[in-house]
Amino acid sequence: MRWILIPIIIISAVSALPSTISLYSVSMSLMDDTLYKTIEICGIQGSDRLLSRIAHGFNPHIQSIELEEAVFGFPGMESGHIPEWAVDTLSGSGGWLLSHVVAFPALRPGMEISYRILIRDWSKSWEEGPWAVLDPSVKGIFPDSCCFSVQGDIPDDLAWSGQDYTEIVLDDGFMYTCSDSAGKLWITHFRSFEDLYASILFPVNDILNRPHPPDLREAALQTTSAGADEWSQVRRARTLICNSMGLRVSERGVSGFEIRNLQEILDSRDGTPIELAALFTAMCHELGLQAYILPATELKPLQPVPCGWTRYLVRTDTDDGRSWLVEPGAFLTPAFFIFKPETLYVLDKGLLLTHAPNSGAENSLTEEWSLNAGTGAFRLLINCRGRFDMLLRRKFAGLTEDEMILVLSEWSWKSGRSVVPDSISISDPFDLAQPASLFASGRWAAPTENSEYCDILPMVSWDETEIIPGNLKRIWNLEGCVSALSDSALILVKTENTVTLTDTVGNTRRLPVLLEIEQ
Q1: What is the pLDDT, as a whole number, of residue 9?
Q2: Domain residue spans in the chain?
Q3: How confident is the model at residue 226 (pLDDT cuts 50, 70, 90)?
Q4: Across-strand partners of 479?
Q5: From edge to edge, which strands make up the β-sheet containing 420-426?
Q6: Which run of H or E residues covers position 410?
Q7: How many Cβ atoms from other residues are within 10 Å of residue 349's Cβ?
Q8: 7 pLDDT exceeds 50?
Q9: Can you tell me whether residue 510 is helix, strand or coil?
Q10: 297 pLDDT more than 80
């Protein structure tokens, strides 16, 4: 029996191990403005089954993917090729139009895989030279050995940055190797951020330098219909674009920098972030304002690489020295609010600038409840700024009153105490010039005959409260209440016929309170 149990124990131990990658290799070569990228992965399947399916997104208009090898088997045994039906092309995600998917059927823990694909890219991305931001991990697995190489028609002064990488000079290129402790590898042919800035905005500037369509001039006139000052005109232009244009997802890579002409954007009633920025900039020019586009990214750029620049701000300057930043592609966001949960890196006329994360003063929320402890009625007033303003607009925009009542009930229920609204109203979520606010009334709790009872204070469960720095204040005015007792850090103030509890720390847990109501 002992000899039978030993292999069972070994197999069980092996099957409980995580997947591992022994080799991750990316080889790039540039020939006649076409980039050839070969990706190779060798690894062992673990109990997490992460290697059962490997997918790569691509744009069929400018890219093709060819599977060169996909075999699997137990170590020391003959490997088998995957069947034809295990390779498919599916709808893409994350900005990719399609996804090339390879499945390893019946791949069990302990089996080895060997996978290799060839990607051809004939877009305009490589007209000036190769570039890449390469992550030395596969599905979060850091390989034992990692090798990245660039060969072919490349400049001699190729720049790179990366922690724990070793550069090897080849006869026709460069190779970069690293261990499992390395970070991302940045490779670029751009000599400066000024060159990168010019390359990103070349298609936009070409469009903006053309004559503007009559439709755009008519739209600009709407922003000046009431003789508004320049600050108000910018706000109105922001609101007009939000009301009339939808947001399209940008394609990945440099193709995301390309835009249609302004009339096509207006006719389609939608645009990518860079197209909406171009439309807003052109509208500012029609208003007589100086305006230009600033590409932005939340990924700290170690080298001038056209990767990650997916946000586009517009700076408007006036003759008297005032200026404002707006983000036309930010859907349902206050006119002059730039969402920055982390440091934002911005290309401003070729200079790489940093914008600090939003401060607490920019993200503010006041949630005031008036609760009648005897009748069970409630009134709720919400006023907010910044990120909280964005959340409120996106939560209720486009809903009927009945739908908003259901949303508010669910929102409150998540905090541990459900309310039953009978009426609700919200400021116009599509008017970006005004702060968002909400008012609701209804039932909070049934009246009770007991003078003392315990209940849970209602509140709105803001999903991102803990990760949004900001000033959050909740107030509960308990009418018809003699006293209230809570073990939470609430500020209590007693007036003649009302007990007021205040929370200024942004509690997200249940807030039980012992109430003594007036008899």
Answers
A1: 41
A2: 18-188, 193-355, 364-517
A3: low
A4: 372, 498
A5: 420-426, 437-443, 377-384, 364-372, 471-479, 498-503, 491-494
A6: helix 401-413
A7: 12
A8: no
A9: coil
A10: yes
Structure tokens at 287: 């208003």
Domains 18-188 and 364-517 share a fold: yes
The domain 193-355 is classified under which CATH number: 3.40.50.12500, 3.10.620.30, 3.40.630.30, 3.40.47.40? 3.10.620.30
The two three-digit tokens of residue 308, written as one number: 């990650």
Q: Which residue in 120, 121, 153, 148 sits closest to 134, CA to CA?
A: 148
CA distances from 413 to 326, 402, 403, 472, 476 (A): 36, 17, 15, 19, 17
In three-state form (DSSP H/G/I as H, E/B as E, the rest C), the secondary structure along 225-279 is CCCCCHHHHHHHHHHHHHHHCEECCCCCHHHHHCCCCHHHHHHHCEECHHHHHHH
Closest alpha carbon to 475 in 385, 389, 370: 370
pLDDT of residue 287: 85
pLDDT at 433 exceeding the cut of 80:
yes
List b or e across 133-142, with b for residues whose CB sees 16 or more CB atoms inside 10 angstroms: bbebebeebb
| 364-517: CATH class | mainly beta
Backbone angles phi, psi at 412, to 5 degrees: -70, -40
Determine the Cα–Cα distance for residues 466 and 260; give it in Å rounded to an integer. 40
The highest-level CATH class for domain 18-188 is: mainly beta
Instruction: Give the separation between CA 513 and CA 453, rounded to whole angstroms.
Output: 9
Cβ–Cβ < 8 Å for 153, 127: no
299 within 8 A of 310, measured Cβ to Cβ: no
pLDDT averaged over the chain?
A: 86
Residue 58 has pLDDT above 70, yes or no: yes
Q: What tens digit of pLDDT does each residue of 107-136 get?
A: 999 999 999 999 999 988 887 788 999 998
Tens of pLDDT, residues 9-52: 444 455 578 999 999 999 999 888 889 999 999 999 999 999 99
Query: Parallel, antiparallel, or unpaired: how do β-strands 471-479 and 364-372 relate?
Result: parallel
Strand partners, 116: 40, 69
Furthest-apart CA pair in the chain: how many Å? 94
User: What 3-state class would DSSP assign to 462?
Assistant: coil
- Rounded mean pLDDT, 269-293: 91
> Alpha-carbon distance 286 to 139, whole Å?
48
Task: Give the pLDDT band of residue 518 (cuts 50, 70, 90).
Answer: low
Length of the chain, in residues: 519
Question: 78-90: per-residue pLDDT in tens?
Answer: 888 999 999 999 9
Q: Can you read off the two tokens belonging to residue 150?
A: 């660039």
pLDDT bin (cut points 50, 70, 90) of residue 243 is confident
SS3 105: coil
